[in-house]
Amino acid sequence: MSRHDVRGLSLWRGQGQELLAPGLDHRKADRAATLGQPQARTLVGVSNAAVGSSRLRMDHALRGRKAPSFADDVRTSLWDVPKWLPSKYFYDERGSELFERICTLPEYYLTSTEAQILRGAASEIVAEASMGEDLVLVELGSGSSRKTQTLIAALLAAQGRLLYVPIDISPTILHQAAERLLAAYPTLRIVGKAMEHEQGLAALSLEQQGPKLVLFLGSSLGNYEPADSERFLREIRRHLGPQDHLLLGADLCHDPAVLEAAYDDPTGVTALFNKNLLERINRELGGRFSTESFDHLAFFSPEKVRVEMHLRSRIDQQVPIEAIGEVVRFSAGETIHTENCYKYTREQLTTLAEVCGFAQVTSWSDPPDRFSVQLLRPRGASLR
Ligand code: TRP
Q: Which of 43-57, 65-79, 276-290 has the highest mean predicted lDDT (pLDDT)?
Protein backbone atom coordinates (compact mmCIF):
# COMPACT_ATOMS: atom_id res chain seq x y z
CA MET A 1 0.00 0.00 0.00
CA SER A 2 1.34 3.43 -0.84
CA ARG A 3 0.54 6.93 0.26
CA HIS A 4 -0.27 9.62 -2.23
CA ASP A 5 -0.66 13.33 -1.93
CA VAL A 6 -3.55 14.47 -4.06
CA ARG A 7 -3.85 18.24 -4.23
CA GLY A 8 -2.77 18.69 -0.67
CA LEU A 9 -4.80 15.80 0.68
CA SER A 10 -2.81 13.02 2.16
CA LEU A 11 -4.42 9.78 1.10
CA TRP A 12 -3.68 6.11 1.00
CA ARG A 13 -4.02 4.06 -2.08
CA GLY A 14 -3.87 0.31 -2.37
CA GLN A 15 -5.59 -2.44 -4.24
CA GLY A 16 -9.24 -1.62 -4.78
CA GLN A 17 -8.86 1.83 -3.33
CA GLU A 18 -9.48 4.92 -5.37
CA LEU A 19 -9.17 8.30 -3.85
CA LEU A 20 -9.64 11.37 -5.95
CA ALA A 21 -9.25 15.04 -5.56
CA PRO A 22 -12.04 17.16 -4.08
CA GLY A 23 -14.89 18.16 -6.33
CA LEU A 24 -15.80 14.73 -7.60
CA ASP A 25 -19.38 13.96 -6.74
CA HIS A 26 -19.24 10.92 -4.50
CA ARG A 27 -22.98 10.45 -4.97
CA LYS A 28 -22.29 9.18 -8.45
CA ALA A 29 -20.69 6.15 -6.86
CA ASP A 30 -24.07 4.73 -5.73
CA ARG A 31 -25.39 4.89 -9.26
CA ALA A 32 -22.20 3.77 -10.93
CA ALA A 33 -22.15 0.72 -8.68
CA THR A 34 -25.41 -0.53 -10.13
CA LEU A 35 -24.57 0.35 -13.69
CA GLY A 36 -21.61 -1.93 -13.31
CA GLN A 37 -19.05 0.51 -14.71
CA PRO A 38 -15.74 -1.16 -14.00
CA GLN A 39 -13.84 1.69 -12.37
CA ALA A 40 -16.33 4.53 -12.02
CA ARG A 41 -18.03 2.76 -9.16
CA THR A 42 -14.93 3.07 -7.06
CA LEU A 43 -14.67 6.84 -7.32
CA VAL A 44 -15.21 8.80 -4.19
CA GLY A 45 -14.48 12.44 -3.77
CA VAL A 46 -13.20 13.83 -0.50
CA SER A 47 -15.48 16.81 -0.33
CA ASN A 48 -14.38 18.32 2.94
CA ALA A 49 -10.65 18.80 3.08
CA ALA A 50 -10.96 20.57 6.45
CA VAL A 51 -12.07 17.34 8.03
CA GLY A 52 -8.54 15.96 8.07
CA SER A 53 -8.53 13.49 5.22
CA SER A 54 -5.34 11.78 6.35
CA ARG A 55 -7.59 10.17 8.92
CA LEU A 56 -9.93 8.80 6.23
CA ARG A 57 -9.55 6.05 3.69
CA MET A 58 -12.31 4.57 1.56
CA ASP A 59 -12.14 1.14 -0.04
CA HIS A 60 -14.62 0.14 -2.70
CA ALA A 61 -15.95 -3.15 -3.93
CA LEU A 62 -14.33 -4.34 -7.10
CA ARG A 63 -17.02 -6.44 -8.63
CA GLY A 64 -15.94 -9.69 -10.19
CA ARG A 65 -16.83 -10.07 -13.83
CA LYS A 66 -19.38 -12.75 -13.09
CA ALA A 67 -21.24 -10.96 -10.28
CA PRO A 68 -24.83 -10.20 -11.27
CA SER A 69 -25.78 -6.59 -11.92
CA PHE A 70 -28.96 -4.88 -10.70
CA ALA A 71 -30.54 -5.64 -14.11
CA ASP A 72 -29.57 -9.32 -13.84
CA ASP A 73 -31.01 -9.56 -10.33
CA VAL A 74 -34.26 -7.84 -11.36
CA ARG A 75 -34.57 -10.14 -14.36
CA THR A 76 -34.19 -13.17 -12.11
CA SER A 77 -36.44 -12.10 -9.26
CA LEU A 78 -39.31 -10.21 -10.95
CA TRP A 79 -39.83 -13.02 -13.42
CA ASP A 80 -39.78 -15.63 -10.67
CA VAL A 81 -42.99 -17.12 -9.24
CA PRO A 82 -43.88 -15.65 -6.80
CA LYS A 83 -42.20 -12.34 -7.61
CA TRP A 84 -39.56 -10.92 -5.27
CA LEU A 85 -36.70 -8.41 -5.21
CA PRO A 86 -33.36 -8.67 -3.36
CA SER A 87 -33.50 -6.35 -0.34
CA LYS A 88 -29.93 -5.13 -0.73
CA TYR A 89 -31.23 -2.82 -3.46
CA PHE A 90 -33.19 -0.83 -0.87
CA TYR A 91 -30.03 1.04 0.00
CA ASP A 92 -29.22 3.51 -2.74
CA GLU A 93 -28.82 7.13 -1.70
CA ARG A 94 -32.58 7.78 -1.43
CA GLY A 95 -33.20 4.42 0.30
CA SER A 96 -30.46 5.01 2.84
CA GLU A 97 -31.97 8.43 3.58
CA LEU A 98 -35.44 6.93 4.04
CA PHE A 99 -34.01 4.21 6.25
CA GLU A 100 -32.49 6.87 8.51
CA ARG A 101 -35.97 8.40 8.80
CA ILE A 102 -37.43 4.99 9.70
CA CYS A 103 -34.91 4.77 12.53
CA THR A 104 -36.34 7.93 14.10
CA LEU A 105 -40.01 6.82 13.92
CA PRO A 106 -41.65 6.16 17.30
CA GLU A 107 -43.18 2.93 15.93
CA TYR A 108 -39.77 1.66 14.85
CA TYR A 109 -38.64 0.96 18.42
CA LEU A 110 -35.66 -1.16 17.30
CA THR A 111 -33.19 1.70 16.85
CA SER A 112 -34.04 3.65 19.99
CA THR A 113 -34.15 0.49 22.10
CA GLU A 114 -30.82 -0.75 20.85
CA ALA A 115 -29.29 2.72 21.27
CA GLN A 116 -30.53 2.79 24.87
CA ILE A 117 -29.02 -0.64 25.56
CA LEU A 118 -25.72 0.47 24.05
CA ARG A 119 -25.64 3.63 26.17
CA GLY A 120 -26.14 1.61 29.32
CA ALA A 121 -23.66 -1.10 28.39
CA ALA A 122 -20.92 0.82 26.52
CA SER A 123 -18.27 0.90 29.25
CA GLU A 124 -18.91 -2.73 30.15
CA ILE A 125 -18.63 -3.75 26.48
CA VAL A 126 -15.37 -1.84 26.08
CA ALA A 127 -13.91 -3.32 29.29
CA GLU A 128 -14.90 -6.87 28.34
CA ALA A 129 -13.77 -6.69 24.73
CA SER A 130 -10.56 -4.71 25.08
CA MET A 131 -8.82 -6.78 27.75
CA GLY A 132 -6.59 -3.78 28.31
CA GLU A 133 -5.45 -3.53 24.67
CA ASP A 134 -6.39 -0.98 22.00
CA LEU A 135 -9.40 -2.24 20.09
CA VAL A 136 -10.22 -1.75 16.43
CA LEU A 137 -13.94 -1.16 15.95
CA VAL A 138 -15.51 -2.77 12.88
CA GLU A 139 -19.17 -2.42 11.88
CA LEU A 140 -21.14 -4.46 9.36
CA GLY A 141 -23.93 -2.37 7.80
CA SER A 142 -22.90 0.83 9.57
CA GLY A 143 -25.36 3.20 7.82
CA SER A 144 -25.26 6.59 9.56
CA SER A 145 -23.18 5.14 12.45
CA ARG A 146 -25.31 7.15 14.89
CA LYS A 147 -25.92 4.37 17.43
CA THR A 148 -22.25 3.48 17.21
CA GLN A 149 -21.24 6.90 18.44
CA THR A 150 -21.76 5.80 22.05
CA LEU A 151 -19.21 3.03 21.56
CA ILE A 152 -16.82 5.25 19.65
CA ALA A 153 -16.90 7.78 22.50
CA ALA A 154 -16.41 5.05 25.14
CA LEU A 155 -13.48 3.56 23.22
CA LEU A 156 -11.86 6.95 22.73
CA ALA A 157 -12.25 7.66 26.43
CA ALA A 158 -10.57 4.34 27.25
CA GLN A 159 -7.75 4.29 24.72
CA GLY A 160 -7.34 7.86 23.49
CA ARG A 161 -7.40 6.95 19.80
CA LEU A 162 -9.36 4.60 17.62
CA LEU A 163 -9.48 3.01 14.19
CA TYR A 164 -13.10 2.55 13.08
CA VAL A 165 -13.86 0.39 10.03
CA PRO A 166 -17.47 0.92 8.91
CA ILE A 167 -18.70 -1.41 6.15
CA ASP A 168 -21.79 -0.38 4.20
CA ILE A 169 -23.19 -1.00 0.75
CA SER A 170 -23.92 2.72 0.23
CA PRO A 171 -20.80 4.83 -0.40
CA THR A 172 -22.77 8.03 0.10
CA ILE A 173 -23.98 7.29 3.61
CA LEU A 174 -20.56 5.92 4.51
CA HIS A 175 -18.96 9.13 3.41
CA GLN A 176 -21.43 11.37 5.23
CA ALA A 177 -21.02 9.39 8.44
CA ALA A 178 -17.22 9.47 8.17
CA GLU A 179 -17.15 13.24 7.72
CA ARG A 180 -19.42 13.79 10.70
CA LEU A 181 -17.45 11.46 12.97
CA LEU A 182 -14.02 12.76 11.96
CA ALA A 183 -15.14 16.32 12.64
CA ALA A 184 -16.41 15.32 16.10
CA TYR A 185 -13.44 13.18 17.19
CA PRO A 186 -9.94 14.49 16.38
CA THR A 187 -8.15 11.27 17.31
CA LEU A 188 -10.43 8.98 15.30
CA ARG A 189 -9.24 7.32 12.08
CA ILE A 190 -11.66 5.72 9.64
CA VAL A 191 -11.21 3.12 6.95
CA GLY A 192 -14.61 2.90 5.23
CA LYS A 193 -15.51 -0.08 3.10
CA ALA A 194 -18.26 0.51 0.54
CA MET A 195 -19.16 -3.08 -0.08
CA GLU A 196 -21.39 -5.94 0.98
CA HIS A 197 -20.82 -7.55 4.38
CA GLU A 198 -19.13 -10.66 3.06
CA GLN A 199 -16.59 -8.73 1.01
CA GLY A 200 -15.93 -6.33 3.86
CA LEU A 201 -15.26 -9.20 6.23
CA ALA A 202 -12.85 -10.83 3.83
CA ALA A 203 -10.96 -7.57 3.27
CA LEU A 204 -10.79 -7.05 6.99
CA SER A 205 -9.17 -10.32 7.85
CA LEU A 206 -6.47 -9.62 5.25
CA GLU A 207 -5.55 -6.44 7.07
CA GLN A 208 -5.25 -8.12 10.47
CA GLN A 209 -5.05 -5.23 12.87
CA GLY A 210 -5.01 -5.88 16.67
CA PRO A 211 -7.98 -7.12 18.69
CA LYS A 212 -11.27 -6.28 17.03
CA LEU A 213 -14.76 -5.58 18.21
CA VAL A 214 -17.12 -6.36 15.34
CA LEU A 215 -20.61 -4.85 15.47
CA PHE A 216 -23.56 -6.43 13.71
CA LEU A 217 -26.47 -4.38 14.97
CA GLY A 218 -30.00 -3.34 14.06
CA SER A 219 -31.30 -6.89 13.72
CA SER A 220 -29.69 -7.08 10.30
CA LEU A 221 -29.11 -10.75 11.02
CA GLY A 222 -32.88 -11.16 10.77
CA ASN A 223 -32.86 -10.07 7.14
CA TYR A 224 -31.06 -13.27 6.20
CA GLU A 225 -32.92 -16.53 5.73
CA PRO A 226 -32.29 -18.78 8.78
CA ALA A 227 -29.81 -21.03 6.95
CA ASP A 228 -28.01 -17.98 5.57
CA SER A 229 -27.88 -16.23 8.93
CA GLU A 230 -26.21 -19.28 10.39
CA ARG A 231 -23.80 -19.42 7.47
CA PHE A 232 -23.02 -15.73 7.84
CA LEU A 233 -22.38 -15.97 11.59
CA ARG A 234 -20.01 -18.87 10.94
CA GLU A 235 -18.32 -16.73 8.32
CA ILE A 236 -17.85 -13.92 10.86
CA ARG A 237 -16.49 -16.48 13.32
CA ARG A 238 -14.01 -17.71 10.72
CA HIS A 239 -12.63 -14.19 10.35
CA LEU A 240 -12.22 -13.59 14.09
CA GLY A 241 -9.10 -14.27 16.10
CA PRO A 242 -9.15 -15.50 19.70
CA GLN A 243 -8.98 -11.94 21.06
CA ASP A 244 -11.82 -10.58 18.94
CA HIS A 245 -15.46 -10.08 19.90
CA LEU A 246 -18.78 -9.80 18.11
CA LEU A 247 -21.58 -7.56 19.35
CA LEU A 248 -24.85 -8.80 17.90
CA GLY A 249 -28.12 -6.84 18.11
CA ALA A 250 -31.31 -8.74 17.29
CA ASP A 251 -35.01 -8.07 17.60
CA LEU A 252 -36.97 -10.43 19.84
CA CYS A 253 -40.29 -12.07 19.12
CA HIS A 254 -43.14 -10.33 20.95
CA ASP A 255 -46.53 -8.66 20.40
CA PRO A 256 -47.42 -9.01 16.66
CA ALA A 257 -49.27 -5.66 16.68
CA VAL A 258 -46.15 -3.86 17.90
CA LEU A 259 -44.01 -5.74 15.38
CA GLU A 260 -46.32 -4.91 12.51
CA ALA A 261 -46.57 -1.22 13.42
CA ALA A 262 -42.77 -1.02 13.33
CA TYR A 263 -42.85 -1.90 9.64
CA ASP A 264 -46.02 -0.04 8.69
CA ASP A 265 -45.91 3.41 10.25
CA PRO A 266 -48.89 5.78 9.92
CA THR A 267 -46.81 8.51 8.25
CA GLY A 268 -45.94 6.15 5.40
CA VAL A 269 -42.14 6.44 5.56
CA THR A 270 -41.71 2.66 5.49
CA ALA A 271 -44.07 2.50 2.50
CA LEU A 272 -41.87 5.04 0.68
CA PHE A 273 -38.81 2.99 1.61
CA ASN A 274 -40.39 -0.16 0.20
CA LYS A 275 -41.60 1.60 -2.96
CA ASN A 276 -38.15 3.09 -3.51
CA LEU A 277 -37.22 -0.31 -4.94
CA LEU A 278 -39.63 0.36 -7.83
CA GLU A 279 -38.45 3.96 -8.16
CA ARG A 280 -34.91 2.69 -8.32
CA ILE A 281 -35.82 0.35 -11.17
CA ASN A 282 -37.39 3.37 -12.89
CA ARG A 283 -34.33 5.56 -12.31
CA GLU A 284 -31.61 3.09 -13.12
CA LEU A 285 -33.16 0.54 -15.45
CA GLY A 286 -35.70 2.65 -17.32
CA GLY A 287 -38.67 1.01 -15.60
CA ARG A 288 -42.18 2.45 -15.93
CA PHE A 289 -43.58 1.59 -12.51
CA SER A 290 -46.28 3.86 -11.17
CA THR A 291 -45.80 3.52 -7.42
CA GLU A 292 -49.40 4.66 -6.73
CA SER A 293 -50.63 1.43 -8.24
CA PHE A 294 -48.83 -0.58 -5.53
CA ASP A 295 -49.62 -0.91 -1.83
CA HIS A 296 -47.05 -1.38 0.90
CA LEU A 297 -47.80 -4.52 2.90
CA ALA A 298 -46.19 -5.59 6.19
CA PHE A 299 -47.46 -8.45 8.34
CA PHE A 300 -46.19 -10.83 10.99
CA SER A 301 -46.15 -14.50 10.03
CA PRO A 302 -46.39 -16.61 13.23
CA GLU A 303 -45.40 -19.77 11.34
CA LYS A 304 -42.17 -18.27 10.01
CA VAL A 305 -41.69 -15.94 13.00
CA ARG A 306 -40.92 -13.02 10.72
CA VAL A 307 -42.36 -9.76 9.50
CA GLU A 308 -42.78 -9.93 5.74
CA MET A 309 -42.79 -6.91 3.47
CA HIS A 310 -44.44 -6.93 0.09
CA LEU A 311 -45.59 -4.55 -2.64
CA ARG A 312 -49.07 -5.45 -3.86
CA SER A 313 -50.35 -4.46 -7.27
CA ARG A 314 -53.76 -2.79 -7.02
CA ILE A 315 -54.62 -3.56 -10.62
CA ASP A 316 -53.86 -5.81 -13.57
CA GLN A 317 -50.92 -4.10 -15.24
CA GLN A 318 -47.92 -4.47 -17.51
CA VAL A 319 -44.73 -2.60 -16.71
CA PRO A 320 -41.94 -2.24 -19.27
CA ILE A 321 -38.34 -2.22 -18.04
CA GLU A 322 -36.15 -0.79 -20.75
CA ALA A 323 -32.76 -2.14 -19.59
CA ILE A 324 -34.20 -5.64 -19.53
CA GLY A 325 -36.12 -5.29 -22.76
CA GLU A 326 -39.16 -7.04 -21.29
CA VAL A 327 -42.55 -6.25 -19.81
CA VAL A 328 -43.42 -7.54 -16.36
CA ARG A 329 -47.08 -8.50 -15.91
CA PHE A 330 -49.07 -8.19 -12.66
CA SER A 331 -52.57 -9.31 -11.88
CA ALA A 332 -54.58 -7.31 -9.34
CA GLY A 333 -53.57 -8.38 -5.82
CA GLU A 334 -50.30 -9.99 -6.92
CA THR A 335 -47.34 -9.16 -4.68
CA ILE A 336 -43.58 -8.66 -4.92
CA HIS A 337 -41.94 -10.04 -1.77
CA THR A 338 -39.29 -7.47 -0.80
CA GLU A 339 -38.05 -8.27 2.71
CA ASN A 340 -38.16 -10.64 5.67
CA CYS A 341 -37.33 -9.53 9.20
CA TYR A 342 -36.93 -12.62 11.38
CA LYS A 343 -37.59 -12.33 15.10
CA TYR A 344 -35.94 -14.47 17.77
CA THR A 345 -36.38 -15.83 21.25
CA ARG A 346 -33.46 -15.31 23.60
CA GLU A 347 -32.91 -19.08 23.75
CA GLN A 348 -32.73 -19.21 19.96
CA LEU A 349 -30.10 -16.48 19.90
CA THR A 350 -28.01 -18.24 22.53
CA THR A 351 -28.21 -21.54 20.63
CA LEU A 352 -27.48 -19.85 17.29
CA ALA A 353 -24.36 -18.23 18.72
CA GLU A 354 -23.18 -21.55 20.16
CA VAL A 355 -23.85 -23.52 16.99
CA CYS A 356 -21.85 -20.94 15.02
CA GLY A 357 -18.81 -21.23 17.26
CA PHE A 358 -19.37 -18.40 19.73
CA ALA A 359 -19.64 -18.23 23.49
CA GLN A 360 -21.79 -15.58 25.09
CA VAL A 361 -19.88 -13.17 27.30
CA THR A 362 -22.84 -11.00 28.33
CA SER A 363 -26.29 -10.22 26.99
CA TRP A 364 -28.56 -7.25 27.54
CA SER A 365 -32.19 -6.51 26.75
CA ASP A 366 -34.65 -3.71 27.45
CA PRO A 367 -37.24 -4.12 30.25
CA PRO A 368 -40.16 -5.18 27.99
CA ASP A 369 -37.73 -7.66 26.37
CA ARG A 370 -38.16 -6.47 22.81
CA PHE A 371 -34.55 -6.33 21.74
CA SER A 372 -31.38 -8.21 22.62
CA VAL A 373 -27.71 -7.27 22.42
CA GLN A 374 -25.20 -10.07 22.94
CA LEU A 375 -21.46 -9.79 23.38
CA LEU A 376 -19.90 -12.95 21.93
CA ARG A 377 -16.39 -14.31 21.74
CA PRO A 378 -15.07 -17.15 19.63
CA ARG A 379 -15.70 -20.42 21.50
CA GLY A 380 -12.56 -22.21 22.42
CA ALA A 381 -10.72 -18.88 22.74
CA SER A 382 -9.01 -18.78 26.10
CA LEU A 383 -10.75 -17.05 28.96
CA ARG A 384 -8.80 -14.51 30.90
N1 TRP B 1 -32.68 -5.03 9.97
C2 TRP B 1 -33.71 -4.09 10.35
C3 TRP B 1 -35.01 -4.80 10.61
O4 TRP B 1 -35.15 -5.95 10.35
C5 TRP B 1 -33.84 -2.99 9.33
C6 TRP B 1 -34.63 -3.27 8.12
C7 TRP B 1 -34.30 -4.07 7.11
C8 TRP B 1 -35.87 -2.67 7.80
N9 TRP B 1 -35.27 -3.99 6.14
C10 TRP B 1 -36.24 -3.17 6.54
C11 TRP B 1 -36.70 -1.75 8.43
C12 TRP B 1 -37.44 -2.81 5.94
C13 TRP B 1 -37.88 -1.37 7.83
C14 TRP B 1 -38.24 -1.91 6.62
O15 TRP B 1 -35.90 -4.20 11.14
A: 276-290
pLDDT > 70? residue 37: no
Question: pLDDT, tens digit, for every residue of 40-58?
Answer: 333 333 334 334 568 999 9
pTM given for the model: 0.87
**Within a domain: 158:** yes
- What is the domain range of residue 137? 45-59+107-254+346-378
Q: How far is the CA of 103 from the centre of ligand 1 (A)?
A: 9
Which residue's alpha carbon is at the smallest distance from atom 4 of ligand 1?
341
**Pair (141, 286) in one structural domain:** no
Q: Is residue 174 part of a domain?
A: yes
SS (H, E, C) the chain: CEEEEECCEEEEECCCECCECCCCCCCHHHHHHHHCCCCHHHCCECCCHHHCHHHEEEEECCCCCCCCCHHHHHHHHHCCCCEECCHHHHCCHHHHHHHHHHCCCCCCHHHHHHHHHHHHHHHHHHHHHHCCCCCEEEEECCCCCCCCHHHHHHHHHHHCCEEEEEEECCHHHHHHHHHHHHHHCCCEEEEEEECCHHHHHHHHHHHCCCCEEEEECCCHHHHCCHHHHHHHHHHHHHHCCCCCEEEEEEEECCCHHHHHHHCCCCCCHHHHHHHHHHHHHHHHHCECCCHHHEEEEEEEECCCCEEEEEEEECCCEEEEECCCCEEEEECCCCEEEEEEEECECHHHHHHHHHHCCEEEEEEEECCCCCEEEEEEEECCCCCC
Atom of ligand 1 nearest to the CA of 273: 14
Q: Choose the residue to mutate in 339, 340, 344, 371 for probing ligand 1, maximizing ligand atoms within 8 Å of C-beta.
A: 339
Q: How many domains does the chain have?
A: 2
pLDDT range class, residue 62, cuts 50, 70, 90: confident
CA 341 to ligand 1 center in whole angstroms: 6
Question: Which residues form the pocket of ligand 1, taking CB atoms under 6 Å from any ligand atom?
Answer: 87, 102, 110, 218-220, 222-223, 263, 270, 273, 309, 339, 341
In a domain, 273, yes or no: yes
Answer yes or no: do 324 and 274 share one domain: yes
Query: Which CATH number does the domain housing residue 175 bear?
Result: 3.40.50.150
Assess whether pLDDT exceeds 70 at residue 247. yes
